[in-house]
């Protein structure tokens, strides 16, 4: 019993270790190779969260049965965590047989299950390490299979990946970036740049969007594309996002009174219970009027529309903070979201602006969104405006505001005031 998983009846981590040690001893003794396949279930957590743990447990038992049906009697299947399984494939003659097994696992686990009247569909990501190529001791094999599994998840899940030596180097670089990011937040290495927004009717600057940059002491300026995804993955996006809100409010207090500041809020930050309190605190400590702060969210925030999400949006509205939907039109349900909450502003994604001169339907899409915004009483901002031709067409189609390199690139906070002073249009 000490070597068996009580739920599925499979070997547990302890028995897996023993059998892996025996397999590696055979490898050393007579050259018999083996493979380790680390299997992680995709979309299992929502089953537990929505249908409860008894259904989740019943599903795990069915997964275990399918795993038993796809391996040889000489192989070992073990459950080593909540939804993590390991297969030790013995007597491996070549990588092709292991690849065939990995492919079968992904296919078999991905087929629909019937569990107590519920039709359930999950998937599997698989990481593979081969002995002796990827290691001749248990710890190294497990580590390398885990690195391969991580790669399979990054590549979209529902697939398998074999370990490659450069995976270890990438993981080391990732861990270094994570450590640097944590230290960078403490050392105040992050900066805000601001991209101005122009109101077309008055032809004057009416606000700026806050964009984060990381000034690393050794790597120089790091683009948010290179660190924000990792910050979201490890949960650091919440404290970084809180710093952005506070700093943006402080900076905006030095601008002309008619100018607002827009900050982006990630889905993880939006789900945290501290968002509204952080905004209240930032406004109070900076002295900025709530009407001058704008919160930009993407459809990722609203993907799981629920009462808590709408409650948070309405709390922000009650404070006087404006709320805008960023990257409008890139998701499949933008229109339904506009019905669930009255946004103040919709920002037309730059991909549509780019298509203005290359695709015949570009103007029609911009015209439709601008007309929709006008009928709903919402401001429409065209993002990514880079040429005079784009500007002219956007004016004709009825957008109210524009943002892009034609107006200005993002400007460091220290240089923004001098930029604003040079703009006669705001005087």
Give the termini separation. 80 Å
In CATH terms, what is the fold-level topology of the largest domain? TIM Barrel
User: Number of helix segments?
Assistant: 17
Number of strands: 17
For the largest sheet, list the strands in their spatial order: 8-9-11-12-13-14-15-16
**Structural class based on helices, strands and sheet pairing:** alpha/beta
What is the level-2 CATH architecture name of the largest domain?
Alpha-Beta Barrel
Structural key phrases:
48% helix, elongated, Alpha-Beta Plaits, TIM Barrel, 5-stranded mixed beta sheet, 2 domains, alpha/beta, 427 residues, 8-stranded mixed beta barrel
Architecture overview:
The chain is of the alpha/beta class and 427 residues long. The protein has two domains: 13-163, Reverse transcriptase/Diguanylate cyclase domain (Alpha-Beta Plaits); 175-426, EAL domain (TIM Barrel, Alpha-Beta Barrel). The protein contains 17 helices and 17 strands. Strands 8-9-11-12-13-14-15-16 form an eight-stranded mixed barrel, surrounded by five helices. A five-stranded mixed sheet has the order 2-3-1-6-7, sandwiched between helices. The chain has a two-stranded antiparallel sheet with strand order 4-5. Helix 5 (138-154) links the parallel strand 6 (123-131) and strand 7. Helix 2 runs antiparallel to helix 3 (53-70), helix 3 (53-70) runs antiparallel to helix 4 and helix 8 (237-252) runs parallel beside helix 10 (275-286). The longest helix has 22 residues, at 165-186. It is elongated and about 80 Å long. The chain starts with 12 loop residues before the first helix and ends in a 5-residue tail after the last helix. The model has no long low-confidence stretch (mean pLDDT 89).
């Amino acid at each position: 019993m000490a070597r068996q998983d009580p739920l599925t009846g499979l070997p547990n981590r302890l028995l897996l270790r023993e059998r892996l040690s025996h397999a590696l001893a055979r490898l050393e003794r007579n050259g018999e190779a083996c493979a380790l396949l680390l299997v992680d279930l995709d979309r299992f957590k929502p089953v537990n969260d929505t249908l409860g743990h008894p259904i989740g447990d019943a599903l795990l038992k069915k997964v275990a049965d399918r795993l038993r049906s796809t391996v040889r009697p000489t192989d070992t299947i073990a459950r080593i965590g909540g939804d993590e399984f390991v297969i030790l494939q013995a007597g491996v003659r070549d990588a092709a047989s292991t690849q065939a097994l990995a492919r079968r696992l992904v296919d078999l686990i991905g087929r629909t299950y019937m569990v107590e009247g519920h039709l359930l569909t999950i998937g599997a990501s698989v990481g593979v390490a081969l002995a002796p190529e990827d290691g001749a001791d248990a710890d190294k094999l497990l580590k390398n299979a885990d690195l391969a599994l991580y790669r399979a998840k990054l590549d979209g899940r529902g697939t398998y990946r074999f370990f490659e030596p450069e995976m270890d180097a990438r993981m080391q670089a990732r861990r270094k970036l994570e450590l640097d990011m944590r230290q960078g937040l403490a050392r105040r290495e992050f900066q805000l740049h601001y991209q101005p927004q122009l109101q077309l009717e008055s032809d004057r600057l009416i606000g700026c969007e806050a964009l984060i940059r990381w000034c690393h002491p050794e790597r120089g300026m790091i683009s948010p594309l290179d660190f924000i995804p990792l910050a979201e993955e490890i949960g650091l996006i919440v404290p970084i996002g809180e710093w952005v809100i506070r700093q943006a409010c402080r900076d905006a207090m030095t601008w002309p009174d008619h100018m607002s500041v827009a900050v982006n809020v990630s889905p993880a930050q939006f789900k945290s219970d501290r968002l509204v309190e952080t905004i209240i605190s930032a406004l109070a400590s900076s002295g900025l009027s709530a009407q001058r702060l704008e919160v930009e969210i993407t459809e990722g925030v609203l993907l799981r529309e629920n009462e808590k999400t709408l409650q948070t949006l309405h709390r922000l509205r009650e404070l006087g903070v404006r709320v805008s939907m960023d990257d409008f039109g890139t998701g499949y349900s933008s229109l339904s979201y506009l019905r669930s909450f009255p946004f103040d502003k919709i920002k037309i994604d730059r991909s549509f602006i780019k298509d203005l001169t290359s695709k015949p339907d570009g103007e029609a899409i911009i015209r439709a969104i601008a007309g929709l915004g006008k009928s709903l009483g919402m401001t429409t901002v065209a993002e990514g405006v880079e040429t005079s031709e784009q500007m002219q067409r956007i004016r004709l189609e009825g957008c109210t505001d524009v943002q892009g390199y034609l107006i200005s690139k993002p400007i460091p906070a220290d240089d923004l005031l001098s930029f604003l002073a040079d703009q006669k249009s705001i005087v």
